Amino acid sequence: GADPPRVDAASMRSTARRECRGEDSATTRDDGAQARGLAMLADTRKTAGSSREALRSSIVARFSEDESLMETFGPVLSIVDALERMYEEYSVTSTSGTLRIRALGAADAFELARWRTFAALAVLLENCKRVEVEFIGPTLRRLDPGVVCEATSTDGSGRLRIQAIRGLYPEVSDVASASASEAAAYDVVVAFNAGLPVGGDWARAIERIVSEHVDAFAANAPSLGNVAPPFWVSDYNEEAIDIAFAFLRHVVQRVLESRNVDSRAEAIYLEPYSNAAYQSRKRISSCTVPAHANAYACAFVGLSRLEE
C-alpha cells in the first residue's frame, strides 16, 4: 500500500500543543482528580509497607483503573520511570532529601495545571522528603514570575515547592548565570511534549545543558558525587520523537566535537504511563497520525569519559 503521509514536525507540534493544552486548560487538570489521587496515594502508602517498589506497583494498579487519574498523574510517574531507566537504582542523594526538577517549555495548561501531582514524588522515590520544581516557559501566566507556591502532602510525608519563571532557558536572568555547581544541584531537567527540532530555542537549551556536564567533569565534580542533571524529553508520537532524538544527538555532538568526551543517551521508548501506552481515547484528533500527550521519550543522560 501507499506509504503513510509524513507530517511536518513544526506543524504537528504547534497543532498538537494547541489542542492538547487547550483541552487541559478547559478542565484545569481537574483539581478534584489531583486531590483524589494524592489521597489514594497516601492511603496506599499506609497499606503497602516500606517498600517503594511495592508502593509504586500498588499505585499504578489503582490509578490504571481510573483513566482520569492516570492521565493527570502520568507525567509524574514518567519522571519516576525515567530516573530508574537512567540510573540502575535511583535514590535522592541530597542530605536534605530534596529532589529538584527543572521543567523547560512549561505551560499553564499542562505542567502548572498538574503542579500538585509533583507531591507524589516525595512518596514514590527513595529518600525523598521534599520536592522542588522550577517551571520555565515563555507563555506561563497562571503564576506571576517568581511566585513560589508550597504545599504539604496529605499524610505529612513530604513538602512540595514550585516556582514559575516566564521566559526561555537559558536566557532567563536568574538561571543564565548558573554555574556548574548550581546546575548540578538539579536532579533532572525535563521537557514534556517538547518538539525539539522546532526553532533555535531548544538548541540553545541543549547546548547549555551539555556544557554544564562538561564543566562538571572538568571540575572533577563526579568524584565528589556532584554531576550535572540528565535531560529527559517526551513527544506526541514515534515519528516526532525519532526526529527529536536525532536532533538531540546532533546538538550534543556539536557541543562535544572539540572535546574528547563520550555521551550517554537513553534511546527512544514508549512512555509506559502515557495515554498511548494505555490506549486512551484522548488523543490529538486534529493530527493526521495518532498523537498522544507524552507518548514517547528519550534522554541525554550524561558523559561517560573526559580525557585530556
How does the SSE layout of this entry go?
Elements: H1 9-27, H2 31-47, H3 52-63, H4 67-86, E1 98-104, H5 121-124, E2 130-137, E3 148-152, E4 159-166, H6 173-176, H7 180-184, E5 188-191, H8 201-218, E6 231-235, H9 238-256, E7 261-270, E8 296-306
Parallel strand pairs: 1-2, 1-5, 2-4, 5-6
Antiparallel strand pairs: 3-4, 6-8, 7-8
Helix pairs in contact: 2-3, 2-4, 8-9
Annotation keywords:
single chain, 308 residues, alpha/beta, eight-stranded mixed beta sheet, 9 helices, globular, disordered N terminus
Describe this structure in words.
It is a single chain. With 308 residues, the chain is an alpha/beta fold. The protein has an 8-stranded mixed beta sheet with strand order 3-4-2-1-5-6-8-7, with helices on both faces. Helix content is 38%, strand content 19%. The chain has helices spanning 9-27, 31-47, 52-63, 67-86, 121-124, 173-176, 180-184, 201-218, 238-256, and strands at 98-104, 130-137, 148-152, 159-166, 188-191, 231-235, 261-270, 296-306. It has 9 helices and 8 strands. The radius of gyration is 19 Å and the shape is globular.
Q: What can be said about this structure in brief?
A:
The chain has helices spanning 9-27, 31-47, 52-63, 67-86, 121-124, 173-176, 180-184, 201-218, 238-256, and strands spanning 98-104, 130-137, 148-152, 159-166, 188-191, 231-235, 261-270, 296-306.
Average pLDDT works out at 78
Order of helices and strands: HHHHEHEEEHHEHEHEE
Q: Give the strand content.
A: 15-25%
Overall shape: globular
Spatial strand arrangement across the major sheet? 3-4-2-1-5-6-8-7
Secondary-structure-derived class: alpha/beta
